[in-house]
Design a protein that fits this description.
- This protein is of the alpha/beta class and about 250 residues long.
- The protein has a domain of about 70 residues.
- About 30% of the residues lie in helices and about 25% in strands.
- It contains 9 helices and 10 strands.
- It has a 6-stranded mixed beta sheet with strand order 6-7-8-4-9-10, with helices on both faces. The chain has a 4-stranded antiparallel beta sheet with strand order 1-5-2-3, covered by helices on one side.
- α4 runs antiparallel to α5.
- The N and C termini lie far apart (about 35 Å).
C-alpha cells in the first residue's frame, strides 16, 4: 500500500538496504495549527522489533499514528509493504477505566475493523479472539471488567485486542510505561515471541532498557529524526546526553 502526499522540494532518501515493512520519505505531519514531524526519512525493517525513542513531545506517538493511518501526513511519502492494515495499541490511559467492558469484549473489538461494530462475530472471529486471549494469558480473566485489572493485565488485554486484528504489523504506544518490572518483563517476552512468529513490532518508548533489546531504533527530538540503526549505535551516551540536556 502506498500513499503519496505533496512533497517538499528536496531529494529523496536513499533506497533501503534491507527488506523493510514500512518506509517514509520527507514525512511531515501534525495537528491543525501545530506541526509535529519535520521531513522524516527512515525505514522500519520487517520481522523485527523497532523502537521509537525520544523525550516526551518528540513526536513518537504522532509517528505511530501516521504509520497506523489514523493521522494524515501534510507532506511526504509513506509506503507499507503487505496487504494487511496495521494493528494499533494505544497507551493504557487512552482507554477509560469506567467503560463497562469485559476483557473478552475488549479483545472482540479487535475484530471490528473486518466485521464492523454491529455485526455478529463469526465462528472464525470467536476462534481468533480465543487464540489472542490464550496467547496473552488472559483466558481466565476474560469475564473480568477491564477497569478491575492491574496495569500489566490491562496492557496485555489491549495487546490481545491488537493481536485479534490479525495484522502482521503491530504498533504500540508506550506499552510498558507505569508497569512494575515483572509486568514489563512479561510484556517484553510476549512481544519478542510475536516477532519470532512473523509479526513486525514497532513500539514507542522512553525506557532505554527496553529500547536496547530491540533490533532497530529511530531516535527523535523535537519532531526530527536524529538517528536510526541498531540501538547499540543510535543510543550512544553522547546522543542521549545531547537530546536530554536540551530539555
Amino acid at each position: 500500500m502506498e500513499t503519496m502526499f505533496k512533497k517538499p522540494d528536496r531529494s529523496s532518501a536513499p533506497p533501503p538496504k534491507r527488506t523493510s515493512r514500512v518506509r517514509f520519505t520527507d514525512l511531515c505531519a501534525g495537528y491543525p495549527g501545530r506541526p509535529v514531524l519535520w521531513q522524516l526519512s527512515a525505514e522500519i525493517p520487517g520481522l523485527a522489533m523497532t523502537v521509537l525513542v525520544g523525550p516526551n513531545g518528540s513526536g513518537k506517538s504522532t509517528l505511530l499514528g501516521v504509520v497506523a493511518g489514523v493521522i494524515h501526513p501534510t507532506s511526504g511519502e509513506l509506503h507499507r509493504d503487505g496487504d494487511l492494515p496495521p494493528a494499533f495499541v494505544p497507551q493504557r490511559g487512552a482507554v477509560g477505566d469506567t467503560l463497562p467492558l469485559t476483557v473478552r469484549q475488549t479483545v472482540e473489538m479487535g475484530r471490528w475493523g473486518e466485521r464492523g461494530p454491529w455485526r455478529r462475530l463469526t465462528r472464525r472471529d470467536h476462534a481468533t479472539v480465543e487464540a489472542a486471549l490464550d496467547r496473552l494469558g488472559m483466558g481466565d480473566l476474560a469475564s473480568r471488567q477491564l477497569g478491575e485489572l492491574s496495569g500489566g493485565q490491562r496492557q496485555r488485554a489491549l495487546i490481545a485486542q491488537g493481536l485479534a486484528q490479525g495484522s502482521d504489523l503491530l504498533l504500540l504506544d508506550e506499552p510498558t510505561t507505569g508497569l512494575d518490572p515483572e509486568a514489563r518483563e512479561r510484556i517484553g517476552t510476549l512481544l519478542a515471541a510475536l516477532v519470532a512468529d512473523g509479526v513486525t513490532v514497532v513500539q514507542a518508548t522512553h525506557d532505554l532498557e527496553v529500547a536496547r533489546t530491540a533490533d532497530a531504533c529511530l531516535l527523535l527530538q523535537d519532531g526530527r529524526l536524529t538517528g536510526q540503526g541498531h540501538p547499540d549505535q543510535v543510543l550512544s551516551a553522547s546522543a542521549l546526553t545531547r537530546i536530554w540536556q536540551t530539555l
